[in-house]
Write a structure and sequence with these properties.
Radius of gyration of chain B: 20 Å
Oligomer: heterodimer
Distance between the termini of chain A: 12 Å
Number of strands of chain A: 12
Largest sheet of chain A: 8 strands, mixed
Order of helices and strands of chain B: HEEEHEEHEHHHEHEHEEHHHEE
Shape of chain A: globular
Number of helices of chain B: 11
Strand content of chain B: 15-25%
CATH superfamily of chain B: P-loop containing nucleotide triphosphate hydrolases
Shape of chain B: globular
Strand order of the largest sheet of chain A: 6-7-8-3-9-10-12-11
Largest interface: A-B, 44 and 44 residues
Number of strands of chain B: 12
Order of helices and strands of chain A: EEEHEEHEHHHHEHEHEEHHHHEE
Chain lengths: 336, 326
C-alpha cells in the first residue's frame, strides 16, 4: 500500500547571509499519509518550530535540504507534467490569512472558478455554478450570499470558508491547512473547524492541520505531531498525547493553556516553567535549557525517537528503555 | 473557587464609566459603536472585556482615554478617574494623564515599537514627554528597574526591537506602560500573537507589575480561558453594549446572557472532545442593528419580546445583565 504522500527524513536548512550561520528549520521528519483512511493530523508547535516549513515542503513550495517528499511513491522533484498535475489536484492548501489571498479587484467567484477552468472540471457555465454552489453549501455558506460579491464585502470567517470551499472543489485527497483559524474570531473558529471535520468525515479528505493552538488540535484531529525548534518532540493519537503527554515540552504546552473550567492556578504555575539556567549544546537535546528533567545525557547527544506504545513516538531520553525508531523509516508509528 | 468579596470592591472606585456613548458619523446616520456603557473599577481590580471583533471593546478603551478620532466622537456619558471628571480636563491635561494616570497597551503593540530606536530610549521618551527631566544616570537606573520589573535583563535597554522575541517585545511594551506608575492599565489583546507558553509568561508579568503598583487592569480579549484565569470580573460586550457583567467565577459556571453562554461554548476545551460549538450567524452591522435585542437573530431562545423590545441592563448583586430571559 503506497502512501498518498510521504515525507522521508526531510530536513530544511535556510542558508545564512554573509558570515551568518544557517538556520535549521526542520530536522529529519518522517510522516506517511494514506488516502485510504481519511483523518485529521495536527502539527503543533510554537513560532519557529518548523511547522509551516513542513507544510511548504509537503506542498512542493519549498525544496527539502535532505530527505525527500514522495507523492504516490515517486519523488516530488522528479514528477513529470502529468504527475505534477495530479499532485496539484490531489493536494490542496488553505492558508492563514483570509485577507491576503484574495485579489481585491476580482469578485470572489474568480477564486472559485479558476481551479475549475484549470482542471476542466465543468463543461458549462451552469455546471460550474452548480459545482461551486455545492462546495459553498458543504462549508455552511449560502451561495446567494457569497457569489457576485467582492472580498471586502465578506467577513474574515466567510472568506476563510470560501477558501475551504475552493480546496474542496477539486475533490482532493489531502488539504494542508496552515493556521486556518488563527486570524478569525473565537466564535467563528468553531464553525470553520467544524466544516474541516465534515470534509474528513463526509467527503473522505485527509487534513494536515498546522496550528499553534493545542486546544483546537485536540478538538478536531485524530493524531498529532508536536514540533519544537525543528525537531519532532512527540507524536501519536491526539487523545493520548494531550491527556497523558510524555515529552516535557508537550507537558509544558498542555499546562500553559488557560482553562475556563479549572482552578485558578494558571499564573502561579508559570513560575515552575522558568528556564533552568543551563546552556544549550550544539549536539544535545534542543529542549535541555527549559526542561525540568535535564540530565547530563541530554546535553551530550540528541535524544533518539522512542516507541513508547504501538502508535506513539517520543524524543526524550527518559524513555530510552523503549525501542528506538530508525530515522527515515518510522514504520506505522508515523503513518496515518 | 468563588472570589472573596474583598474590601477593595466596597471602597471608592478608581475608574468610573457612566453611560458612555461613542458614535461614528456615517452618511446613513450615526453608527453607535459604544452604546450606553457603564461600569466601575476598584483599584487593584482586574476587569475583563470580552466580545467578538466589532463589538466595541477597543473603541471603549480609546474612549476612556479620550482618543477617539473623527468621524468618531463621544456623544454622551462621563469617565471619572480617582474622583476627577476627565471631560473637565483640557487637551494638555488629558495628555498628561495618558500613561501617568491610565496607560494603554494597544493591540499589536509589540509591532508599534519604533524599529530604529533602542528600547531604553523608547522608555525614556515617556519621561521627557511628561516633563520629567532626569539626569542620564538616574534615567538609566529607572530603565533598568522597569526592565527588571517585567523580567527583562538591563542589556535589553541597549537593544533594538528586532533583536527581541515577541514575548520580550510585549514585555518591553508593558515596561513602557508602567513607566509613570499609572492607576489603570488597559491591555488590548496583549497576547494575541504569542504562543501559549509565552502568553502565560507575559500575563504573569502583567499580574505582578499590577500587584506591585496596586493598579487596576482592564484586559480586552475574546479568549474566555484566559479571562477565567486572569480577571476578577468580566464584562461581555455585544454590538456596542455591555450585555453582562459579573464576577468571573459566576460568569463561567452560570452565565446569564445567552451570548455569554455561546462565547464560553465556542472556547475549545481540553475537557471533552468534539464539543466545539460555534455561534450561529454573524455579528450584526452596527448601522443596521436588528430591532429589540441585538442578539435575537442568533439566539436560540429568542421570544417575541426579544424581537421588539430592547432589553435594559438590570442590576443583580454586584452584577448586571441585559436580557429579557435572564
Amino acid at each position: 500500500m503506497v502512501a498518498l504522500i510521504e515525507a522521508v527524513d526531510v530536513s530544511k536548512r535556510f542558508a545564512g547571509g554573509l558570515g551568518r550561520e544557517s538556520t535549521l528549520a526542520l530536522a529529519g521528519l518522517s510522516l506517511a499519509i494514506h488516502a485510504e483512511k481519511p483523518s485529521i493530523i495536527a502539527v503543533v508547535g510554537e513560532s519557529g518550530s518548523g511547522k509551516t516549513t513542513f507544510a511548504r515542503l509537503l506542498l512542493g513550495l519549498a525544496e527539502p535540504s535532505g530527505g525527500e517528499i514522495r507523492y504516490r511513491g515517486a519523488n516530488l522533484r522528479a514528477l513529470d507534467r502529468d504527475g505534477r498535475r495530479a499532485f496539484r489536484h490531489d493536494v490542496q492548501a488553505v492558508f492563514q490569512d483570509p485577507y491576503g489571498v484574495y485579489n481585491p479587484f476580482y469578485r470572489v467567484d474568480h477564486v472559485l472558478a479558476a481551479p475549475l477552468r484549470r482542471f476542466r472540471l465543468a463543461g458549462s457555465r451552469a455546471e460550474a455554478r452548480e459545482v461551486i454552489s455545492e462546495a459553498l453549501r458543504a462549508v455552511g455558506l449560502q451561495p446567494e450570499e457569497i457569489l457576485g460579491r467582492f472580498p471586502h464585502q465578506l467577513s474574515g470567517g466567510q472568506r476563510q470558508r470560501v477558501m475551504v470551499a475552493r480546496a474542496l472543489l477539486l475533490k482532493p485527497k489531502l488539504i494542508v491547512a496552515d493556521e486556518p483559524v488563527s486570524m478569525v474570531d473565537a466564535s467563528l473558529r468553531a464553525t470553520i473547524l467544524g466544516s474541516l471535520r465534515k470534509l474528513t468525515d463526509e467527503h473522505g479528505i485527509s487534513i494536515l492541520y498546522i496550528t499553534h493552538d493545542l486546544a483546537t488540535a485536540y478538538q478536531i484531529s485524530d493524531s498529532i505531531l508536536v514540533l519544537y525548534r525543528a525537531y519532532l518532540a512527540e507524536a501519536g493519537a491526539v487523545e493520548q498525547v494531550v491527556m497523558a503527554p510524555c515529552h516535557p515540552y508537550t507537558q509544558l504546552l498542555v499546562s500553559a493553556i488557560p482553562r475556563a473550567h479549572a482552578t485558578r492556578d494558571w499564573l502561579v504555575q508559570e513560575e515552575d516553567s522558568r528556564r533552568n539556567g543551563l546552556a544549550l549544546t550544539a549536539m544535545g537535546c534542543c529542549f535541555a535549557d527549559r526542561c525540568p528533567h535535564t540530565m547530563p545525557a541530554c546535553l551530550a547527544a540528541p535524544p533518539g525517537l522512542y516507541r513508547t506504545a504501538p502508535r506513539r513516538a517520543v524524543a526524550c531520553v527518559q524513555y530510552h528503555d523503549y525501542p528506538t525508531l530508525p530515522p527515515g523509516n518510522p514504520g506505522e508509528v508515523l503513518s496515518v | 473557587m468563588p472570589p472573596k468579596p474583598s474590601e477593595e470592591h466596597v471602597s471608592e472606585p478608581i475608574l468610573q464609566v457612566k453611560s458612555l456613548r461613542v458614535g461614528f458619523d456615517h452618511p446613513q446616520g450615526v453608527v453607535q459603536a459604544v452604546d450606553n456603557v457603564s461600569f466601575a473599577l476598584a483599584s487593584g481590580e482586574r476587569f475583563g472585556l470580552a466580545g467578538e471583533s466589532g463589538s466595541g471593546k477597543s473603541t471603549l478603551a480609546l474612549a476612556i482615554l479620550r482618543m477617539i478620532k473623527p468621524p468618531g466622537r463621544i456623544s454622551a456619558g462621563e469617565v471619572w478617574l480617582a474622583g476627577r471628571r476627565l471631560a473637565d480636563l483640557d487637551e494638555e491635561g488629558i495628555r498628561a494623564l495618558r500613561l501617568a494616570g491610565i496607560a494603554l497597551v494597544p493591540q499589536g503593540s509589540m509591532n508599534s515599537l519604533n524599529p530604529v530606536l533602542r528600547i531604553g530610549r523608547q522608555i525614556t521618551d515617556a519621561f521627557a514627554d511628561h516633563g520629567l527631566h532626569l539626569g542620564r544616570g538616574e534615567e538609566e537606573r529607572r530603565v533598568a528597574t522597569l526592565l527588571a520589573e517585567v523580567g527583562l535583563s538591563e542589556v535589553v535597554a541597549r537593544m533594538y526591537p528586532h533583536e527581541l522575541s515577541g514575548g520580550m517585545k510585549q514585555r518591553a511594551c508593558i515596561a513602557i506602560a508602567i513607566s509613570l506608575r499609572p492607576k489603570v492599565i488597559i491591555a488590548d489583546e496583549p497576547t494575541s500573537a504569542l504562543d501559549v507558553v509565552v502568553q502565560r509568561q507575559v500575563m504573569a508579568t502583567l499580574a505582578s507589575v499590577q500587584r506591585d503598583l496596586g493598579a487596576a487592569v482592564i484586559l480586552i480579549g475574546h479568549d474566555m480561558g484566559l479571562m477565567a484565569q486572569f480577571v476578577d470580573r468580566l464584562g461581555v460586550m455585544y454590538a456596542g453594549r455591555l450585555v453582562e457583567v459579573a464576577p468571573i467565577g459566576e460568569i463561567i459556571t452560570s452565565p446569564r446572557h445567552p451570548y455569554t453562554r455561546a462565547l464560553i461554548a465556542a472556547l475549545p476545551s481540553l475537557e471533552r472532545r468534539g464539543t466545539l460549538v460555534g455561534i450561529p450567524g454573524l455579528a450584526p452591522l452596527l448601522r443596521e442593528l436588528p430591532p429589540g435585542c441585538a442578539f435575537h437573530p442568533r439566539c436560540s431562545q429568542a421570544t417575541d419580546r426579544c424581537r421588539t423590545e430592547k432589553p435594559v441592563a438590570r442590576e443583580i448583586v454586584r452584577a448586571q445583565v441585559a436580557c429579557h430571559l435572564a
